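User: Okay, second chain of the day. Same drill as before: sequence in, structure tokens out.
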Amino acid sequence: MVTAAALLTTSLAAATTSPTDTASAVRARAAAPPAGTAPSVAATSRCSTEQGSAPSGWRRVMADSFSEDIPLGEWGKPGGRWEFPGGKWRARVAGAKDTSGRGTYNSPKTTSQHHGALDVWIHSEGSTRYVAAPIPLVGDTVGQRISLCMRADQIPGYKIAFLLWPDEGPGNYHGEIDFPEGKLLSTGSAHAFMHFDPKPSGGKQQDAYDSNVNLMSWHTYTMEWHPGQNVASFYVDGRLIGRSARPEVPDGPMHYVMQMETYVPGQELPPPAEGHVLVDWFTIDVPSSTSTAAGNPFTDISDSPHRNEVIALYKAGITKGCTTTRFCPDGRVLRDQLASFLDRVLDPPATNADYFDDDDGNLHEGAINRLAAAGITTGCAARRYCPDDPVRRDQMASFLRRAFDLSPAQRDFFSDDAGNLHEKAINAVAKADITSGCSATRYCPGRYVTREQMAAFLVRAMRNAGLL
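Assistant: Same drill. Structure tokens below.
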């Protein structure tokens, strides 16, 4: 039996052969790789082609040789040291289901770095099949060149689809570019797919190319997407295997996902199996004249259900994010921050009045006073605004009702806000289609508002008022 660690420490000559029946690594090896033993892979690739530098016409925006050891259980762990490994990756939300709904994403349970490689251990615990989908922290772009050196064990019941996914939906209506994609079987090969944009109602919907190489061996896979030229090209070890040159090549911003999952819906799953997908190095280049997609500098919203609203808020000049490249979608919104968001949306008249004593020197004090002068807030108590308190969903409703002068509702939309001080405001925002609650009959008034939820509230309110 050959372990993943053994495969990773073999010579280049041995690693580029075609192992036919590799077994999964010992759990302890994946969980706690020996410190200081990971060989350097920057100079010598396990594939026949090197990582190299960005080709002419391209600019490198990300490169990872996975030289830092990260044990199983820590990669992508929320709040942990390696929540964003190397500042280059993030994990898909643990517990989310894969395409077929039969696999469960969980990077801490599957993903580690050791011996100079990314190691995704696909396995089951009880009835749960654990898979992963690492996502590079690169802003959505129009045009990308993605290259990686990888191999996988044979794992019946599972497949990979490393893909560029469109930022605008629904689904892949605006195309999709996959490479490599294939079942993790020794009898198959890696394929490339260029799904048409827009998705046709009938007839041919994609170009497909067979690489004629097996995913069980080390190979370098490269896809180049030139939307301005209507071209998508696919290479294995530097050899062109296919090129789509047609108007249907996607031309809108896309983001990359390294998706490992169970077979697609409708395909029977064999009994649970386990094995490893190994990546030696990974790079992303963008056209030299291209930066992050216009209107979206944020690298942490690809999986946000409110992604489009965040982008709309950024384009409208209402938010700049929590850093220059991150929006922090799961962060709580504080009352002083909300004041500035509403102030930018509404642009209320200036005031010289100082309404509260607990916001002196606060960065958002001017916005707080302007909202108070406009009657949008009365604070949390006499002469107090409580600027550092997080905003609850019921409070958000009252802010929005006053800010956008929403008309009262004649019906009661939710069952969990009876007697709540903000119940009338909650019903007003529901009537205006600004909220549909946290379920069909509940609003969850006591929950705190996250930044991505705030974006959704504000964008819907602005559209309702004709401001967007």
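The longest strand covers residues 275-287.

User: Thanks, on to the next one.
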